[in-house]
Amino acid sequence: NAGVTQTPKFQVLKTGQSMTLQCAQDMNHNSMYWYRQDPGMGLRLIYYSASEGTTDKGEVPNGYNVSRLNKREFSLRLESAAPSQTSVYFCASSEALPRSGGPSYNEQFFGPGTRLTVL
Amino acid sequence: AQTVTQSQPEMSVQEAETVTLSCTYDTSENNYYLFWYKQPPSRQMILVIRQEAYKQQNATENRFSVNFQKAAKSFSLKISDSQLGDTAMYFCARTGANNLFFGTGTRLTVIP
After folding, report:
1. pLDDT for the residue numbered A103
2. Which of A100, A105, A107, A108 should we substitute to test contact with B (largest number of B Cβ atoms within 10 Å)?
3. Is A110 part of the contact surface with chain B (CB cutoff 8 Å)?
4. Residue A25 at interface with chain B, using a CB cutoff of 8 Å
5. What was the pLDDT predicted at B22?
6. What is the CA radius of gyration of chain A?
7. pLDDT of the residue at A105
8. Does A4 touch chain B (CB under 8 A)?
9. Do residues A67 and A49 make contact, with C-beta atoms less than 8 angstroms apart?
10. A87, A79 Cβ separation under 8 angstroms
11. B98 pLDDT more than 80
12. Are B77 and B55 in contact (CB under 8 A)?
């Protein structure tokens, strides 16, 4: 099993360019997530998908769109990149949404990250 | 605000010694999960240990253990017999309604 894979690993864009970050998981997980990691800050949720066909905004969704293409794949699109979107982007997946208070929790598995620089 | 705070941006420890990383959090929920993730220079996020808030017993995983104080909303990580491979960023995290809330991280350096 490859786990969670992300492409590309590195990308440099000019302001205003668009691009799509790809994420795929082979663990048959229902839920998938996109986070960004900025210096001096922890990971912050951009969007998540509880199951195939559904997507919802996270903490910092502005400037991004997502597509849950199928159960395996969850892509993140920057329509018009801005320098403020320079960051490291992580995709993650889990069997189900994290539930506080429930007897079970399913671990989130992370991809290796994509380092994006917007000039 | 439901936040996770790590007040130690950087720490160092001699190889084979013990080090404790601090984490406090805020939540209005009674039951939740807490985690410590390790991020080595490879950037991969690796789950080190997790604690279920409704369990009073502190979690342990080999050389890693936690001190969970629910009333104080405190969740510290103790690393015993530190090894060079423990050098990494460590993030504390807490479950929210639909995601994880992360602290800002502590950069740990193990000195030979």
Report:
1. 43
2. A100
3. yes
4. no
5. 97
6. 14
7. 63
8. no
9. no
10. no
11. no
12. no
**pLDDT digits over A18-28, tens only?**
999 999 999 99
Show the 3-state SS of chain A.
CCCEEEECCEEEECCCCCEEEEEEECCCCCEEEEEEECCCCCEEEEEEECCCCCCEECCCCCCCEEEECCCCEEEEEECCCCHHHCEEEEEEEECCCCCCCCCCCCCCEECCCEEEEEC
d(CA B79, CA B63): 6
Minimal C-alpha gap between A15 and chain B (Å): 25
Angle, CA of A104, B103 and A115, to the nearest 5° = 100
- Cis omega before residue A8 (within 30°)? yes
As a whole number, the mean pLDDT across chain A is 90
